[in-house]
Specification:
With 323 residues, the chain is of the alpha/beta class. The protein has helices at 44-55, 75-83, 100-110, 124-131, 136-149, 169-178, 204-211, 277-282, 287-299, 318-321, and strands at 11-15, 61-65, 90-95, 114-118, 154-160, 181-187, 229-231, 239-243, 256-259, 264-266, 275-276. Bound molecules: S-adenosylmethionine.
């Protein structure tokens, strides 16, 4: 379907839980997290109903995220059912990779086409520090298992944080040279607790300078159709991508909307406007009425976000909205 600005919207990102098995410093506060109450989290049946409804509106691509989606019980059965819904052409997952060593092949068998793995550092101590206790070896094993399982393409998401992992960019680039991995460097967004740490932000131009890629021409043919600008080079098995929500925002080609773990539809990640679908799903509304509500919210997707403005504040944690 189209929105009022003639953007074709066919991609739904679904946060299936706000819980996570890591506590990344830029994502979650140290002093306890206010988890959403259990009863407010959509059940798998409710999410599957919504997926069916949105396919009737022309949605084709679905990304399951969180929180940590692999940590929610019953995820494999849910993914299997979602992948069999007529109209679901692309079922994708975003994960921190901790549970991938044992789950990568099962995900492929359940019908997941491809996977994004978040990995900000290859250094075990730094990983423990930024995730407050995680084991990087599990994620690295998970990356290899995903490649073996054929979850193609495997993309690595690296959020670049000044004074933390800026010096590792060349090492990540080597991964893309040696493996069929799409390594995407992401600008830190001022969302949730990161809105207080604007000095940690590293612009894409600076990342390219570190990698000596200033003059290279971007390519746009890596499967995804998203906001990343990819660069690949002779002798590379994979590619390097850059995602910038701040220094060069991509609102005019944004093709996605988001469903929060508690069933709110967010037409724009960076706008606090939400439409309550949970209430609609749990009330008396028919599929047709819910489709109308959904279509109406998509129609009003904002033209662009204003995250660059000082006054902007992210009201929710990324794990609730679904990064
Ligand atoms: N647990 C899964 C994972 O780690 O991929 C999915 C949820 S996580 C919130 C999704 C992505 O959002 C991760 O790649 C994470 O690094 C990213 N993220 C969280 N806070 C961010 C921020 N302030 N700026 C940019 N990316 C952020």
């Amino acid at each position: 379907m189209q929105d009022q600005f003639k953007r074709r919207i066919e991609y739904l990102r679904i946060s299936i839980t706000d819980r996570c098995n890591l506590r990344c410093k830029y994502c979650m506060p140290e002093t306890g997290v206010n988890w959403l109450p259990h009863e407010s989290i959509l059940s798998y049946e409710e999410i599957l109903r919504l997926i069916r409804i949105t396919t009737s509106l022309g949605f084709k691509r679905f990304r399951i995220t969180g929180g940590e989606p692999l940590a929610r019980k019953g995820i494999l059965d849910f993914l299997g059912e979602a992948s069999r819904i007529p109209g679901v052409e692309d079922l994708m997952l975003t994960t921190n990779g901790i549970l991938l060593p044992e789950m990568a092949f099962d995900l492929k068998a359940a019908g997941v086409n491809r996977i994004n793995i978040s990995l900000d550092t290859l250094n075990p101590e730094r990983f423990r520090e930024i995730t407050r206790g995680g084991d990087v070896q599990k994620v690295i094993q998970g990356v290899y298992r995903s490649l073996e399982a054929g979850l193609h393409p495997v993309k690595l998401n690296v959020v670049v944080v000044r004074d933390f992992n800026r010096d590792e960019l060349p090492q990540f680039m080597e991964l893309a040279r040696n493996y069929p991995l799409h390594v995407r460097f992401i600008e830190l967004m001022p969302i949730g607790i990161s809105s207080e740490h604007r000095n940690d932000f590293v612009p894409i131009a600076e990342m390219k300078e570190i990698l000596g890629l200033e003059g290279m021409k971007p390519k746009r043919d890596i499967k995804g159709g998203g906001p990343a600008e990819y660069i690949t080079s002779e002798g590379f098995e994979g590619s390097i991508g850059f995602i910038s929500a701040l220094s060069r925002h991509f609102c005019d080609t944004c093709n996605r909307v988001r469903l929060t773990a508690d069933g709110k539809l967010r037409p724009c990640l960076h706008s606090a406007k939400e439409v309550d679908l949970c209430q609609a799903l749990r009330g008396e509304k028919t599929d047709k009425e819910i489709a109308e509500l959904f279509a109406e919210a998509v129609w009003h997707k904002p033209a662009e976000h204003h995250m660059n403005e000082e006054a902007w504040q992210g009201q929710r944690m990324m794990s609730q909205i679904g990064g």
